[in-house]
Amino acid sequence: MFYVKDISTPANTSRLSPVVSDIKVWSGVIHRVEVVFPPGPSGLLHVTIWHGGHQVYPSTEGMNFAGDNESSEFNDFYPLPLGFNTITVKTYNEDDTYAHTCRVRFGVLPRWLVDPTLQFRRISENFATLIRRIGAV
């Protein structure tokens, strides 16, 4: 599943009082993150992504995504607890004249689909079942 949110941030939005936008996502693993900056913000629009009260992206605390006519896109493996989760996007805008908008996208897949240890466990269990059945014949 992909979750998408466009976030508009007014001019003169302080780092100390950012726009806070929540995105509800189902449990699984965040495997893809994209932060898209259309033309215009000239690096003045800043974005951080949080979960459970901690900054997750970028993983360096105190840093943020910023850009102009570009995107920050990457693959990851960030497990989410069972049930609905709230991903919080905080934005601030140093432009003194214009509001700016960014688009944030998250790809979330079921954990069994992207976790190789779970896939290996499933294959091992199926193989053990097959061996037991062959041995029983």
User: What is the makeup of the main sheet?
Assistant: 7 strands, antiparallel
- SSE pattern: EEEEEEEHH
Number of DSSP strand runs = 7
Indicate the radius of gyration in whole angstroms: 20 Å
Estimate percent helicity. Answer: 10-25%
What is the strand content? over 45%
Q: Choose one word for the global shape.
A: elongated
Structural class of the secondary elements?
alpha+beta
Low-confidence stretches: none
Distance between the terminal alpha carbons, to the nearest Å? 43 Å
Folded structure, characterized:
- The protein is of the alpha+beta class and 137 residues long.
- It has two helices and seven strands, in the order βββββββαα.
- Strands 1, 2, 3, 4, 5, 6 and 7 form a seven-stranded antiparallel β-sheet that branches.
- A hairpin with a 2-residue loop joins strand 3 and strand 4.
- The N and C termini lie far apart (43 Å).
